[in-house]
Amino acid sequence: MELAYIPSPSHGVYYLGPIPLRGYAFCIIIGVFVAVWLGNRRWIARGGRSGTVADIAVWAVPFGLIGGRLYHVITDYELYFSDGRNWVDAFKVWEGGLGIWGAIALGALGAWIGARRRGIPLPAYADAVAPGIAFAQAIGRWGNWFNQELYGRETHVPWALHITSSEGGRVPGYYHPTFLYESLWCVGVALLVIWADRRFKLGHGRAFALYVAAYCVGRGWIEYMRVDDAHHILGLRLNDWTALFVFLLAVTYIVVSSRIRPGREAVVEPGASDEVSEGPADRSATEGSEGASEEPAGGVQDGPSDGAEPAAGAGEKAGPDAGQVKEEAAESAPKKS
């Protein structure tokens, strides 16, 4: 009898009337929102406009979902195109099956299209969204928990995952919760990228490359623990070889990029710095100063004409009085003989 374990949901679909609410889909959607929200904050901090990350995500997210599904279907084609299988199931994304490698590759293509339309350098955008993508992966992995899939070897540790479903060849029992291991690892990767970016001022795509390299390290040992069917090459699962290859590419990019383009981009979005420097307060102050400068100018222009009349009037009034004083003084003065 197990004293402690992680229970699995009795089912991964909940119904709101006739509408099915799938836990796997909810995890993906929440992850996307978190990635866009955090990416937007980081983009603004880098000097970009608010909303730019979401605009580009409109391109990146659909491309990423298609790429993730394509990678899964291609590498596990026997699940959909072998005897007794229905190829229509290849389109049922909500049932699980998204390959992160395909999602990142095709998602990057979608982001490149969106960034190009906005005149934004893709590496700077990738640096801004990198931690958010890691957090999105951490949340998305809980979709595997709802579907009772992608678990590890059998174990009796206190945090073992209790699998209760027997569908798809599953054997009920207690297994390593590899979904939880990867979720926690992705959280650590996100925090690592945030710290390194602040500490070393990473730029030109190096923060994104760090995310990729760190994720590959964790994916390697977690993938080794999994027991689901997979293609093997020289005794290693295909995803292990993919993680090793991508890790080497990411590290090479960090080294070469830091030598060719050291430092960080000064401008990430053309025109955004001008809007930031001249905000609403600055514009109102500028308008106020212009209004203030116009009023003195008008006063100076009207001043001489308005001021000349009182001055002339004062002179005319003072003139006769002074003459009378002089005449009276002359009359009262003794005359010389």
Describe the model.
This protein is mainly alpha-helical and 337 residues long. Helix content is 65%, strand content 6%. It has helices at 23-45, 52-75, 78-81, 100-118, 122-140, 142-147, 178-200, 206-225, 238-260, 272-277, 280-332, and strands at 6-7, 13-16, 19-22, 161-163, 173-175, 232-233, 236-237. Strands 1-4-5 form a three-stranded mixed beta sheet, with no helix packed on it. Strands 2-3 form a two-stranded antiparallel sheet. Strands 6-7 form a two-stranded antiparallel sheet. Strand 2 and strand 3 (19-22) form a beta hairpin. Helix 2 packs antiparallel against helix 4, helix 5 (122-140) runs antiparallel to helix 7 (178-200) and helix 5 (122-140) packs parallel to helix 8 (206-225). The protein is globular, with a radius of gyration of 37 Å.
Separate helix tally: 11
Radius of gyration: 37 Å
What is the string of helix and strand elements?
A: EEEHHHHHHEEHHEEHHH
What helical percentage do the residues reach? 55-70%
Low-confidence regions? 279-320, 322-337
Shape: globular
Mean pLDDT: 83
Q: Main sheet: which strands, in order across?
A: 1-4-5
The chain-level structural class is mainly alpha
The proportion of residues in beta strands is 5-15%
Give the N-to-C terminal Cα separation.
Answer: 149 Å
Count the strands?
Answer: 7
Instruction: Please give the largest β-sheet.
Output: 3 strands, mixed
